[in-house]
Amino acid sequence: MKKKSLVSINDFSKEEFVRILDLASEFEKEPTREILKDYVIATLFFEPSTRTRLSFETAISRLGGKIVGFSDSSSTSTSKGETLKDSIRIVSNYSDLIVMRHPLEGAARLASEYASVPIVNAGDGANQHPTQTLLDMYSIRKTQGRLDNLNIFLVGDLKYGRTVHSLLMAMAEFNTTFYFIAPEELKMPNEYKGYLDKKGLKYIECKDFNAYLPEADIIYMTRVQQERFTDPIEYERVKNVYILQRSMLNGCRENMKVLHPLPRVNEIALDVDDAPQAYYFQQALNGVYTRQAIITHILGIK
């Protein structure tokens, strides 16, 4: 029987979230082990990536695994017209697990139906990015000491931002209060607000970034993604709508941390980098430990 894939964050239970975070903590203490030496992992990146691809490959390498795959689909048979279905069936023959990023929403779920090995979704269009969510949760728990009863501010591109969509769904399991800070054009889609409504969770929508900042435990900044816009004029209008300045951190809670899935453009000023609240570079490092935990959990490796 094929092991379970991770396509949507909802493919894992609350208990599995905690299990993976506990595993990540163990890998942080000892990230180099030879427990994947008999495994081949395929990394298929149909869309550009730096942190996600490199952190996955670092995670696999530090565990002794072999990596096959590509970071540019133009050099593969896809450029000759090969379908995703055929590509996935072929690569399944060569690997024990497939990590895939694709620009089309739903591509990861489709791949999981054709693959004979588990699929790990490394981002599919504006849909979801579940491994980013788990490293975000690890970062939140590590800095706050808990996951329950936190105020999380999601700022910027809430319409196309797959990282905020996945994070919302996962943190909804932990009695989170959400603050949605976005311009009208990039508001959180109704389907995700409806998800919170069904769970009876509180959320606040506003356009004024400063209005509630003293209440934040986590400020989760996002980049306005030019590649998701079909209208360049619309992008120009909203691209710099929210910029976090160091002076804005005055009066925030002592425990408050600033997260960002990266890359950033202008949404976090450079002077924030040296502030005690800045955590986004450590957050990126946490991706190695969390992805080690995800891979070993899915493959059932002790």
Task: Produce a short descriptive summary.
This protein has 302 residues and is of the alpha/beta class. 36% of the residues lie in helices and 15% in strands. The strands form two sheets. It has a five-stranded parallel beta sheet, covered by helices on one side. A four-stranded parallel beta sheet has the order 2-1-3-4, sandwiched between helices.
Structure characterization notes:
The chain is an alpha/beta fold. It has helices at residues 14-29, 51-62, 84-94, 107-114, 130-144, 162-171, 190-199, 232-238, 280-299; strands spanning 40-45, 66-70, 97-102, 119-124, 151-155, 177-181, 203-206, 218-221, 257-259. The chain is built from 9 helices and 9 strands.
Q: If helices are DSSP runs of H or I spanning 4 or more residues, what is the number of helices?
A: 9
Helix/strand order = HEHEHEHEHEHEHEEHEH
**Weakly predicted, low-confidence segments:** none
**Biggest pleated sheet:** 5 strands, parallel
**Measured distance between first and last alpha carbons:** 19 Å
Query: In percent, how much strand structure appears in the residues?
Result: 5-15%
Give the fraction of residues assigned to helices.
Answer: 25-40%
Rg, Cα atoms, Å: 19 Å
Strand order of the largest sheet: 7-6-5-8-9
Structural class: alpha/beta
Overall pLDDT level: 91
Q: What overall geometry do the principal axes of the alpha carbons give?
A: globular
Number of strands: 9
